[in-house]
Each structure stands twice: as C-alpha cells, then as structure tokens.
Amino acid sequence: MIRALDTDEPIALTTLGNLLDLDRSTVGRNVKVLDKMGLVVLGTGMDQRETTVELSTAGRKILKTGAPLWEKAQREFEVKMGAKVAPKFRDVLQSL
Predict the structure, then answer these.
(1) Are 3 and 63 in contact (CB under 8 A)?
(2) What band does 28 get if pLDDT is binned at 50, 70 and 90?
(3) Would you tell me which CATH number, out of the four given (2.40.110.10, 3.40.50.2000, 1.10.10.10, 3.30.565.10), belongs to the domain 11-95?
(4) Chain-centre distance of CA 51, in angstroms?
(5) Which residues touch 84 (CB under 8 Å, ≥6 apart)?
(6) CB 10 within 8 A of CB 52
(7) Which residues neighbour 50 within 8 Å (Cβ) at sequence distance 6 or greater?
(8) Closest CA relative to residue 87, chosen from 19, 70, 77
(9) Which residues contact 3 (CB under 8 A, 6 or more apart)?
C-alpha cells in the first residue's frame, strides 16, 4: 500500500482500492493504521465526500529505507524458488 501511495498527488481511497484490488472499507481500515503510525496524511477530495491520502515525510522515509530490503527479499525468493516456479507461485497467491 505504501508503494501505491508513492505519487506526487494525494489519491482517493476508492482509487487506491481499485489499484490494489481491495474494497474501499479494507483500504480505509489499513489507511487508518498508517495514519496512526504517522506514515500518511489524510485529506478531502474535490467534492468533500471523498477521503484522500498521501505519504507523509515519515512515510516516504520508510519507503526509501524499506524498498531495498523488499527488493532483496524478492531476489532471494526468486533464487530459492527458481525462475520457473516463482512466477507460478505468485500467480497462485494473486488468485486467492
């Protein structure tokens, strides 16, 4: 979710849900956790009914610190699972 929020503009919760293939209520609950952690800033959309979210300075710092660790974990996964099995495994996980 933090990677999806790495944009130049605030993003509506509904749009974020569509990007992540999650329903809006699930996105809202997860964003509340990120907000309590100080990783996002909440706002309102153009019509005042839609909540928007964007990464805070702390959120951008976490992303900058965590992204290399995530990439390393993905490379290790590829090595351990093998180049043929890893994509199939990800497809199975995606289908859940």
Answers:
(1) yes
(2) very high
(3) 1.10.10.10
(4) 16
(5) none
(6) yes
(7) 12, 13, 14, 44
(8) 77
(9) 63, 67
pTM for the full model? 0.78
The tens digit of pLDDT for each residue in 6-15 reads 999 999 999 9
| 47-78 per-residue burial string, b: 16 or more CB within 10 A, e: under 16 | eeeebbbbbbeebeebbeeeeeeeeeeeeeee
Q: What is the Cα–Cα distance from 83 to 76, expressed in whole angstroms?
A: 11
Helix (H) or strand (E) run with residue 68 in it:
helix 57-81
The DSSP annotation for 12-37 comes to EHHHHHHHHT--HHHHHHHHHHHHHT
| C-alpha atoms less than 13 angstroms from C-alpha of 65 in its C-beta half-sphere | 6
pLDDT at 87 > cutoff 80: yes
